[in-house]
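Quick look at the format.
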Amino acid sequence: MTRKSNAAPQATEAARGAGKPGAARERVIKKYPNRRLYDTQSSAYITLAEVRHLVMNREHFVVRDAKSGEDLTRSILLQIILEEEAGGAPMFTEAMLANIIRFYGHAMQGFMGTYLEKNIQAFMDIQAKLAEQSSSVSPEMWTQFMRMQSPLMQGMMGNYLEQSKTMFLQMQEQMTRQTEQMLGAFGIKR
């Protein structure tokens, strides 16, 4: 990593966090036109792999264009996903990616994002509970446990699927209500 002194931007970043009661100073990473990323907290250039490390450590950060100040965080996170997907063991199938693409511009686009976010959070909650309950289990025992597909695991996945179904139904009901309200505003009754 190349170290670079940059006192003025750091003072500006510190000022952004000031005045917000109880707000922790936001970690800012600047993206320069040469595609390099500069971490204002460590005063050093960092790689995409190091940004991934921040994500894995659940550190809150924002990536901003060095010239315009535009928020590029989503773009950088998508780059990390792209690298992970190309890295050998992809998480998304082609069919899943195609289905996600089909939702862009669709009336359900906003709902789909919320639905996916809630489902991933529910899955992470299940994972955290399993990790908490199995803190004394060795990796070998964990592997055997996963192979057996024990009733506990099936029950937890069943609960997850039930939560997912409930969220989808709620989303569908909300869309129906909004559609009826919108049609009612135009004087159209269903």
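Next, a different chain entirely:
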Amino acid sequence: MFAMQYELTLPADYDTGIIRGRVARIGHLLDDWDGLGFKSFLLRERGVHGSPVNQYAPFYLWNTVEGMNRFLWGSAFQGLADDFGRPQVLRWTGLAYEEGGAAGSPAAVAVRNRRRIPEGVELAAVMADAVNETRRLAGEDGAVLTAAAVDPHGWELVHFSLWEHEAPKAEGDVFQVLHLSQPGRGALPRGQQW
């Protein structure tokens, strides 16, 4: 399992209806993408859920590196790069994935929490805590799904969760979910990934 995200931070006066229209037009194109667990089309709007910025920031969980590469090197990602410029693509290796109690419900919001792993800590303990946090969040009321992943290059841990209601029980950046493509969500391995 591989996690991936890119962020397009937009001007403060940007008409986010443009992003909503874009997702309405193209979101369905990934609904049957081979190798994709899910893609959540995410938007933060300045002043909504405490966001200081307007930002389009899709988050992906991939079942296969081939599916991810086909997306990045094919026309799907090129269209975004042509329209907005080529963003930095963040990637993490999967640590844990859980379906929540509201797994069958549509997701209203997503929460992403990124943090650095400090020097001098026992890595096995940090990763075990991340797995436990994934399980804990999945057990919270309204959780659709939760995941944890790590970037061992920059030593960054990310927790990601989807929620059926506007009051998520996770801390981090809150995004509106505009669309959820989930062709391989059922194939994502549950629990600890090692």
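The chain has four helices and eleven strands.

See the schema section for token definitions.
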